[in-house]
Amino acid sequence: MHTRRIGDVEVSAIGLGAMPMSIEGRPDEARSLATIHTALDAGVTLIDTADAYHRDADEVGHNETLIAKALASHDLGKDVLVATKGGHLRPGDGSWTLDGSPRHLKEACEASLRRLGVEAIGLYQFHRPDPRVPYAESVGAVRELLDEGKIRMAGISNANPDQIKQANDILGGRLVSVQNQFSPAFRTSEPELRLCDELGIAFLPWSPLGGISRARELGSAYAPFARAAEAYGVSPQRVCLAWMLAKSPAVVPIPGSSRPETILDSLAATDLVLGPGELAELDAV
Predict the structure, then answer these.
(1) Dist CA 126 CA 84 (whole Å)
(2) How far is CA 249 from CA 48, 49, 63, 77, 193, in A?
(3) What is the spatial distance between Cα 186 and Cα 285, in angstroms, rounded to a whole number?
(4) What is the pLDDT of residues 130-176, one digit of tens each?
(5) 211-230 b/e with 16+ CB inside 10 Å = b?
(6) What backbone phi and psi angles, to 5 degrees, belong to 126?
(7) Closest Cα to residue 54, out of 22, 24, 26?
(8) DSSP alpha helices (H): ranges in the chain?
(9) Whose CA is closest to 254, among 210, 208, 191?
(10) Could you say which of 53, 124, 135, 222 is catalytic?
(11) From CA 164, how far away is CA 156, in angstroms rounded?
């Protein structure tokens, strides 16, 4: 498995996005555990989760609990960097709400620590800016968690360039990751990706294949990805992830998966090397 860095930690160049295993349409637990274990066997050492990855109102942290169970039951579980997030909430009616208050973030971190069964969270990320709370206050709470040793590394998610710079300043240069949406269908995070590359901060594209409902349509919606896939005899999804990896060594995609076969296909992208002409054609989509 090829590797990249998040802060001072070496991780697999592609991580596992675990959200599909806990929200609407999720599989049974046995298949989810099999997916996580398959990923570990294949060399994955980064798993992305959040306390808001659940379906019903009374199961906050479902995904964190699932991951903790999977890691505890596998010999390689101890080698995994678990990246979780706080600041988003799901009332249970399918909607998403926000709470970026320092009090909530600290309480959420404590709850995540209990569910994950660790003394310190490997990577804790502020999930999404809350317009009702000054951004500096939210990131300040994350800084306090870092200073207190509750988290080993700090990141932010769904941030713009100014917020990235502000967060890095507040954290005293200790911002290690930015997790933003980025895919062929969503290219507006290009400035954030370039900034992370300049600053040496890991950029973690979420929904890199376009999201749960659109990932299967990648080849039919974007002809250059389909042509490259046909030329190499691989899936358009694998081409997509190889294209992302080629953009910058700061990029660490976290494709969502809930099947062993799909995470294995995603991981194979680390061995697919696209030519300059192909990359230019994909960039032009």
Answers:
(1) 9
(2) 19, 22, 28, 25, 11
(3) 11
(4) 999 999 999 999 999 999 999 999 999 999 999 999 999 999 999 99
(5) bbeebeebbeebebbbbbbe
(6) -70, 120
(7) 22
(8) 29-41, 62-72, 102-116, 135-147, 161-170, 190-199, 218-221, 223-232, 236-247, 260-267, 276-283
(9) 208
(10) 53
(11) 8
In this prediction the pTM is 0.96
pLDDT digits (tens, 9 = 90+) for 38-71: 999 999 999 999 999 999 999 999 999 999 999 9
Question: What pLDDT digit, counting tens, does each position of 208-252 carry?
Answer: 998 877 777 887 888 999 999 999 999 999 999 999 999 999 999
The single residue listed with the structure tokens 């800016």 is 129
User: Residue 270 gets which letter from DSSP?
Assistant: G
pLDDT of residue 1: 86
User: How far apart are alpha carbons 248 and 250 in whole angstroms?
Assistant: 5
> Which residue, 102, 128, 120, 119, is CA-closest to 50?
128
The answer to whether residue 53 is catalytic is yes
